[in-house]
Write a structure and sequence with these properties.
single chain, Quinone Oxidoreductase, Chain A, domain 1, 2 domains, 16 strands, globular, binds zinc ion
């Protein structure tokens, strides 16, 4: 079968993806499922892996946002049948570590050992993938499998939304209208909110943020962000800030625009970022800085319902659809050009 395989550069963290013929995987353990992959989204993480900004295992099939159809089940699997439509939670949780038992499965210590499908174990940029039953969610028969490939990123946006805990009277600021910033926007937008403001320098992305319902867009390279936020919020500042970028500049920007009692949710990840902070600004105005990391099984269930009930307009988020064979020539190039939200590949 055709697969997109990551090959690490010798002695470095960077690497290349090659499209190559590999053997079709088979079930080796009784709790496993063989999935015929029907759709797999391209994630910013896939590019970060190539650039050395995210660890990954050598010789691994990438793709961690995928949906498909059950084609074979192990002996222990009694509740799935061939032909069921499914999606995969790529982050395998153990269920018995301290974090899992404290109800924080997204912080499962098993994740730190490098097990994510499509990053550390073979994933969805291929015709077939084998995953354990634990990592699979069934989806309704009627659900289209391209939309279903968005369930994983949607689950992360839902997790962020729940941590942000927005109120109808809040001024909400999303920093960064990349694909995750925009998906978070679609989850938060159904709240009436005082104002929903996006900070984004790229014109195409800013336009998308407007189409998805932002009340205001601020280009930080052309405008004074603090001054603009003061104008829009009548000097109150932002009650909720979601940093969907995660670099030093955006973290420090957030501290210039936060209201008294504000919640700053750190969502975007960059291992290299180091930022300044004034602890007294947190104490004196009782502000909160919160992290939002991947998602829980419940977030997956919520994401499935949002799509099944057509609460969000998924067709606005899928901007491109390509064949797996076009992943390198078209997919990654579109990602680098930044004029896309979700690109779905069909193996
Ligand atoms: Zn992803
Ligand atoms: Zn665990």
């Amino acid at each position: 079968m055709l697969a997109a395989v990551f090959h690490k550069d010798k002695g470095k963290d960077t690497g290349k993806v090659k499209l190559e013929e590999v053997p079709k995987p088979e079930i080796e353990e009784d709790n496993q499922i063989l999935i015929e992959v029907k759709a797999c989204g391209i994630c910013g993480t896939d590019l970060k892996i190539l650039e050395g900004g995210h660890p990954a295992n050598d010789n691994t099939i990438l793709g961690h946002e995928f949906s498909g159809i059950v084609r074979d089940v192990g002996n222990q699997v009694k509740d799935l049948i061939i032909g069921d439509k499914v999606i995969v939670d790529p982050n395998e949780k153990c269920g018995f570590c301290e974090a899992c038992r404290r109800g924080l499965p997204n912080l499962c210590s098993h994740l730190a050992t490098g097990t994510t499908f499509g990053i550390f174990q073979n994933g969805g940029f291929a015709n077939y993938c084998v995953v354990p039953r634990n990592s699979i969610f069934t989806i309704p028969k009627e659900m289209d499998l391209d939309s279903a490939a968005l369930i994983e990123p949607l689950s992360c946006a839902i997790h962020c939304h729940n941590i942000a805990d927005v109120r109808e009277s809040d001024n909400v600021v999303i920093i960064g209208a990349g694909s995750m910033g925009l998906i978070i926007e679609t989850i938060i937008r159904p709240h009436p909110l005082k104002n929903l403001i996006c900070i984004e320098p790229d014109e195409w992305r800013a336009q998308k943020a407007l189409e998805l319902g932002a009340d205001y867009i601020i280009n930080p390279t052309e405008r004074n962000v603090k001054g603009e936020i003061e104008k829009i919020t009548n000097r109150r500042g932002a009650n909720v800030i979601i940093d969907a970028v995660g670099i030093s500049d955006t973290f420090e920007m957030a501290q210039k625009i936060w209201a008294h009692g504000a919640r700053l949710v750190c969502f975007g990840q960059d291992d290299r970022a180091i930022a300044h902070i004034r602890p007294n600004d947190i104490v004196r105005y009782q502000r909160q800085i919160l992290g939002s990391y991947i998602s829980t099984a419940c977030d997956f269930l919520d994401a499935i319902e949002l799509i099944a009930n057509e609460i969000i307009e998924i067709e606005k988020l899928i901007t491109h659809q390509i064949e797996l064979s076009e992943l390198l020539t078209k997919g990654f190039e579109l990602m680098k050009g930044r004029q896309c939200i979700k690109i779905i590949t069909n193996p």
